[in-house]
Amino acid sequence: MDPFAAPAGAAIPQQRKVTLVIDDSAVKEDEIGRKSRTRSMVLVVVGVLLGLGVGFGIGNTADKRHQYKMAVQDGKDIYSKVQEVSKTVDQARTLVKQAVDASSGGPGKKATVDFSSIEQLVAMKRPFSANEFHRRLYRAFGDGVVDDLFDYYNNVNLAWDGFAALGAKTAGNARRDALTKSAAATDGLLNNDYGMVLAKSGEQFAGGLVFVTVPPQDPNAAAPKEKPEGKKGKKAKAEDEGLKVKVASVQGGQEVERTLYTGQELGESFEKFVFIVDKVRSRTILGESANVFGKYRADLNDINARMEKASEVQGRLLKSLGGVASLN
Question: Which residue from 165, 35, 153 is spatially nearest to 89, judged by alpha carbons?
């Protein structure tokens, strides 16, 4: 008998199986939740950045458009100003040209000082103020247009400075008298030819200045016939060769005929020839009294050059600025 044997008739207990079920739904939901939140945050950040980018682009475009509109408006204003100034510049240019023509002299003309034109130039109001183009937008302008604009502004202002300087040099009776006398001396220098005739005193030669008048030449006149050469033939031939002119020791005085020297053999008949004086090289001596008027003419020609330059640039500006002013 097995003392440890189960008693007869005893019920045998039924074996039970235990199954472990691991539920990871909570873990997955938590991980999924974190991933979802991360994705949402990324999407939000991207959305914000895109919004900022689009907003900046729209704002930048709007700013550029606004700047361009302002530049076009400045172009219209500047075009209107140049149109207004051009009338004054054209008027001043005409007056300067009149003064230059009066000072030129030449054959059949008399060199004078046009005091009336200078007075009108001095009285003209300066067309540009110092800050006319300050703080303007030039975005709608080409580079060449901007350069022309400031070149025009500079030339016009310098020309008006020249008007003021001319006014100071021609103010008062004393200055005007000196200029008038100097103009008369210049007129004589421009309209007269000067020469030198030789004279002999003992063994010494001396030259004397004379006024030379060249008579008009007939292009159909026959050439002078040659004199027969002989003991006196060379002398006669030398005197006959060359242009015959009139000379006088004082302007408007009695004239005598001389032969213009062009390289002939002088011999003993040197007193029958006249040597032309180079007025350009001798202007310091001949035109000493004309120096005041000469300086006046130099100043006037400088102003005239500036006015011509300003007028040239003005034409280009009116055309190019007209294109800017037509923009919407």
Answer: 153
Say how far apart CA 142 and CA 166 lie, in whole Å: 37
**Strands 244-248 and 204-213: what pairing?**
antiparallel
Contacts of 317 (CB under 8 A, 6+ apart): 82, 145, 148, 149, 152
CB 42, CB 48: distance < 8 Å: no
Name 290's Cβ contacts closer than 8 Å, sequence gap at least 6.
182, 183, 185, 186, 189, 283
pLDDT tens-place values along the chain, 328 residues long: 455 455 555 555 555 555 555 555 555 555 555 666 666 666 666 665 665 555 555 545 565 666 677 767 777 888 888 899 999 999 999 999 999 999 887 667 788 899 999 999 999 999 987 677 766 666 667 778 888 888 999 999 999 999 999 999 999 999 999 988 888 877 777 777 888 898 887 778 888 888 888 877 665 555 555 545 554 555 555 455 678 998 888 877 888 898 988 888 887 788 889 998 887 677 667 766 678 888 898 999 999 999 999 999 999 988 888 877 676 6
How many other CB atoms sit within 10 Å of the CB of residue 103? 20
